[in-house]
C-alpha cells in the first residue's frame, strides 16, 4: 500500500546558509551602517538569537531573516515568533526558536482534516510525524494538496512517498 510521512523539520545547514546571507545583507545595507547587530544560531537548541540597538532595527532584521529563509526554501512558520524582545542595557535582544517536529495539537488538527476530507486514507500518528496510507497514490496526492491549501500552524514537509 502506498504511503507518505508528514513531518515538520528544518535542515540546520540550510538555516545556517540563510542566516549567513542575512548577515551579509545587514552588513551591506546603509540603514545598518555602524550598528552593533548580531545574528547567532545555537544549533543544539535550535534558537536564532538576534541582538541590535532598537526595536525598529529588530523588526527589520527579523524581516530580513524571514525573507532569506523563504528564499532558501524554509517556511516562516518554522520560527516561533511568540517570544517578545527584551532589553539588555542599550541593546535589544530577541530569541527565535526554530520549531522541529509536529506538536500534539497540530497532529490532531491534521488528522481531523484528513479524516474529514472523505478520502480513503488512514492517518497514523508516530511521535513527531504522521504516516498516511491509502490504496491509491492519487488519494495520497489529494491529501497533500489539501494540507498545502490549509493553514495548520506548522511548516509541513511530505517525505517517503512509497
Helices, strands, pairings?
Blueprint (H helix, E strand, L loop, with lengths): L2 E5 L4 H17 L9 E5 L4 E6 L2 H17 L14 E3 L2 E7 L6 H13 L4 E6 L2 E6 L2 H13 L7 E3 L3
Antiparallel strand pairs: 1-7, 1-8, 2-3, 3-5, 4-5, 6-7
Helix pairs in contact: 1-2
Fold and architecture overview:
Belongs to the YajQ family. One of its GO terms (molecular function) is nucleotide binding. The protein has four helices and eight strands. The protein is α+β, with helices and mostly antiparallel strands and 162 residues long. Strands 6-7-1-8 form a four-stranded antiparallel sheet, with helices on one face. It has a four-stranded antiparallel sheet with strand order 2-3-5-4, covered by helices on one side. Helix 1 crosses helix 2. The protein is elongated and about 60 Å long.
Name a few traits of the molecule.
Alpha-Beta Plaits; elongated; 162 residues; single chain; alpha+beta; four-stranded antiparallel beta sheet
Summarize the structure.
This protein is of the alpha+beta class and 162 residues long. The protein has helices at residues 12-28, 55-71, 104-116, 137-149; strands at 3-7, 38-42, 47-52, 86-88, 91-97, 121-126, 129-134, 157-159. The longest helix is centred in the first third of the chain and has 17 residues, at 12-28.
Assembly context of the chains:
single chain
- Overall mean confidence score, pLDDT: 90
Instruction: Quickly give the structural class.
Output: alpha+beta
How many structural domains in the coordinates?
2
Strand order of the largest sheet: 6-7-1-8
Q: Which spans have pLDDT < 50 for at least 5 consecutive residues?
A: none
Q: Alpha-carbon distance between the termini?
A: 8 Å
CATH topology of the largest domain: Alpha-Beta Plaits
Largest sheet: 4 strands, antiparallel
- What name goes with the CATH superfamily of the largest domain? YajQ-like, domain 2
Cα-atom radius of gyration:
19 Å
Assign the CATH class of the largest domain: Alpha Beta
Function: Nucleotide-binding protein.
Family: Belongs to the YajQ family.
GO molecular function: nucleotide binding
Keywords: Nucleotide-binding
Amino acid at each position: 500500500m502506498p504511503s507518505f510521512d508528514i513531518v515538520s523539520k528544518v535542515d540546520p545547514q540550510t538555516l545556517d546558509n540563510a542566516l549567513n546571507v542575512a548577515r551579509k545583507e545587514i552588513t551591506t545595507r546603509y540603514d545598518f551602517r555602524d550598528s552593533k547587530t548580531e545574528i547567532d544560531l545555537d544549533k543544539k537548541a535550535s534558537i536564532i538569537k538576534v541582538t541590535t540597538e532598537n526595536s525598529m532595527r529588530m523588526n527589520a532584521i527579523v524581516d530580513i531573516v524571514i525573507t532569506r529563509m523563504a528564499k532558501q526554501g524554509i517556511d516562516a512558520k518554522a520560527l516561533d515568533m511568540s517570544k517578545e524582545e527584551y532589553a539588555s542595557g542599550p541593546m535589544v535582544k530577541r530569541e527565535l526558536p526554530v520549531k522541529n517536529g509536529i506538536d500534539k495539537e497540530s497532529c490532531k488538527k491534521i488528522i481531523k482534516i484528513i479524516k474529514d476530507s472523505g478520502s480513503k486514507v488512514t492517518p497514523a500518528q508516530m511521535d513527531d510525524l504522521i504516516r498516511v496510507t491509502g490504496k491509491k497514490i492519487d488519494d495520497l496526492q489529494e491529501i497533500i494538496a489539501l494540507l498545502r491549501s490549509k493553514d495548520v500552524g506548522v511548516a509541513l514537509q511530505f517525505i517517503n512517498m512509497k
